Amino acid sequence: MARGIFAKSESQAASIMREIQGDVIKSVGTVRNYEQALKTCCDYLKEFKLGGLRDLTPEIAHQYLHNRSTEVAQSTLNMDRGAIQGMMQHVTHTLDKDEKLTVIKSELTTILNSRGYTPAQVDIITSRQTAPHALATKICHSSGLRAHELLTLRSTGEVHPSLRENIHADKFSNLPNKSLIYTVDGKGGLIREVAIPTYLAQQLESYRRDTPINVVDRGINYQSYYKFPGGHRFSSAFSQASKRGLGYSNGAHGLRHSYAQDRYEQLANDYYRNDVMQIISQELGHFRPEITEVYLR
Length: 297
Known about the structure:
The chain is mainly alpha-helical.
């Protein structure tokens, strides 16, 4: 069993930095920042039952950094990558001294600039789209999907979601429509459940492929089980339809903002705010409820 796997995140991060401080990193400020970065990473590993810091592989590190890219600015993301890379090069030796982790671009600016759409605005947009694109828009709006997640839809029971601690017992409660559970591959390949209204799921199933195909979107390979738009192609077409119908576009990501805002209204009268934020955060596939606050502006 890996050393320290059950230790607190603070203890694991401090242990790593004691092996780096002085010989590899001399700056006290950098040591402090790296220790905090590793502590946050360890929290993530514990949340998704992925082991301890010393178990971290380059693949899981990239998953983590992809998730963080939606939550933090580029400077913080670079700090996270530097801390993990330093640990892997000098402590766990899962990277050679001249190997580096891939640079991930922060998506936080896009998220901060996105805003939601009202149901009436969604209707205007979908009236300017083809039937498959209109259905994709409605699913993103009613289920909180990212554009690339449309490419990864699988019906319930076909794929198990990623293990996660502290799943709220009332996730998907108070939904306005009867729904079916599907799974999608979220940021960094972590699989989560999504609830799609039954009437939309029935339409979706009419697009099911007899055999899945490989789809490349922004350099990433996806197994697509539905003859259905997604990823960059969907995002671009959505923005064009929004501009034709509304005269502007907040981007397809604005549909996730709409989902968060609608869910808040559906839950707020029956749950404490902390529970509401935890439920919405888990439904959207966020690591921390704090990022969900951005979606409610």
